[in-house]
Amino acid sequence: MKIQLALDRINIEEAISLTKKVEDYVDWIEVGTSLIKEFGMRSVAALKEAFPDKTIVADMKTIDNAVYECKITFDAGADVVTVMGVSPLVTIETCLVEAEKRNKRIMIDLLNTDVASLPRDIAEKAVLCLHTSKDQQELSGSGFSGLAVKDVGHLELAIAGGITLENIDEIAKLNPAVVIIGSAITKAAIPAAAANQFMSLLGKGAV
Asked: Is the dihedral of CA 104, 114, 122, 64 positive or negative?
């Protein structure tokens, strides 16, 4: 199980500074949608330059214009780019083609859709992200509240949205390939301690 650190609603310098505190405890570093929208490809390039040995995930949430968006993001240094599962199938397929050309990966964000909506051959080529949205979390006043994971077989799953130290055991039972954690680390009093605790609870061993 990989830990993906989600960096959102901060600036580039803050993102780098925070990540330096926790880099020993995380596997993938996500340049969040808010960072990309505010600072563009500079945010992706800066995180890759600062952490060249880490997998950099650019949360583009692409929904159209796949060739262009993949090109600029992969060229900026991303290793994984996200596309929305509700996109036209041709958009998802194009993202996969563009990633394959560069030996990179695509993560399909299943916000407001599910695994069953994707053709099996497409689903097998990507990381599939089961995502509880920020708006859902704020409306309900709580974070992750359980996800029905069925008919996924050997598919590579990521889980995102409202993951905390209190519900990480529930997440771990779903056996995702990637656990995406944001504010439970980034807003913790001691981010490194929180990240270390997540690592331990996911059976990766504490440092």
From this structure: negative
